[in-house]
Predict the structure of Death domain-containing protein.
Amino acid sequence: MSENGMIQKEDLYQIWEQEEFRQILPFKEYIFDMLIHLDIVSEQRRYDTTGSRLPIENFFVPCMLTQRNNTDYLTQECTPERTVSLAFVFKGTIIPPALPNRLICACLSMWTLKEYQGRKLLFSGFVGLSFDKEHDIVVCVEGNKILLYLVHKRSKGLIIPDIATSVRDCLFVTLERISEFYQSSIHCKASSKLPFLTEYSCSKLNCFTSENKLVSETEECLCKHGENIKNNWRTWNKKKEQKQCDANCPGLSEDALSQIPSNTELLRLSVNCETRMLHDLALHLGMEEMVRQRKQVKSSISDDILDCIPSDEIVDRLAPLIGKIVFQLGIELGLSVEEIESIKEKCDRDLTAQNKEVLFTWRKDRTVKPTIRVLEQAFVNIGKGARCLKEVVKDVDPNTLKAVEIVTDRIRENENRIIQDIQISQILDHMMTHLVISADDRRDIEHYPRQDDQNKALLDIVIKRREPAYSVFVDGLRNYGYEDIANDLKCDFSPSPTSASAGTKGLSVWNFPLYKVRLQKNYLKVITDILHENIVDHLITREVLSVDDGKKIDSGKNPQEKNRNLMDMLLRKNEQGFNEFLKALKKDSIYADLADQIEKTEVTSTDMATLHKCLK
């Protein structure tokens, strides 16, 4: 721990199990939370490729570090050309170690620890942090000063004053809070004076001027090198709500002006410009061709199709045809640079997956309706042309697309209510009986331990399958106590002959066992009407089920759950298992009619088509 300043919670608990600490062990969770609250321990934040937080494994403990910074980061990266600096100067000759350690710990809770040449920049009295992809932060202790460096990837002239000001404010307030804590802990009389002052450096990074002097001076404040340090001071002290530079602002430095603007900077510029201004700028930069491409496209695709939102199938078919224009397409469709970069990182070297993710991300945002017309215009604007899109949608039925839209919109409008308010076990029974979900679907849904996650998984299936899954789902809501939600979701569909026939296309060569369809069509009847014990015993005797299967069936919390477990197994068995199940039913006169009903259940081409959707 003295080398890397990291510990796992379990290791700390193990230390507390020693005799000296036994008294605090019962309160270990509270004490650990207090250590975090007091900035003595800090979480190590980690993220996956999608930007989602990963479970916390390690914690930083800066106060345990003894290793000093032995990297060349300060000399190689914190250069005068790329760095601005300030110092919090304390009144004594040295700073008590506890204070900067707590400040470093607080920094680790706010920003991500930086790695440099394969090493984490965390040492005794020193920490390097990543603010974003362009800005890094360094906090280090030298004598009675806590130095703060803000480093830009390319040039200090490109440092965003809002970022510098927010970083300074965060550290100032944190130091103020820590100082007040220590004053209160030693029963010092409360003082309005802080134990530190703020000083700002010139470009040499080793010459500092006090804030009091800077504030008192009006236009200029020269350091001992003859440099007007006011410029750096303004970077650290951006006025709130200030939208324009001061009259005496020198503008960007020559070094900054010589840099090629990044995609992020171009995006920031574009969102703050009127369309006319961007048009004039494009002409001024010699981009007549691009301006000409921005004209409204005259489409040969019918309006019925153009005004619809592209379905999953359209996106899947279109993605491989787009090629190496992921970034251009994403920007054209309104995605942020950060979103596109995240997609490219997530789907590394898989162009089709990148294109698909860009299209799905665009389609989720309904600020502007994400229609095929918008997509066609985007393709034309980036020089791709609309031919590939035209090929993909040429056989698409507009009624089907509109049905998808209606389903998606209705579910989106009621999504929170559905996810938070409903219990789906009986609704799943209903949907199983009507063949719109399979036994595998049910397993996939119910493997989530939380009800809201199960509900989300079911909604994903309903959106993907559309009709008849949607109507059956709505009927299930109505039948099992959620009539108000069902009424809000209800809509009338009139599938075209084309879409109806498409459902049975290819079924002549699709061989699905009829006995399974018959069994599933009677799913609800079986789970509500039978007592499973004798039936399971018969199936175990006939080696259709094992003893362990019987135990798993009995693990259900109530008779219906036990019967669901039984049906889940039967739907995975062969025809012999089905026949033995019917024999078991017929052995009991109470279930003879049910056995006869199952055996004579009619299976239609529509049934087969519906179940076929579940298995695609």
Notes: The chain has 33 helices and 13 strands.
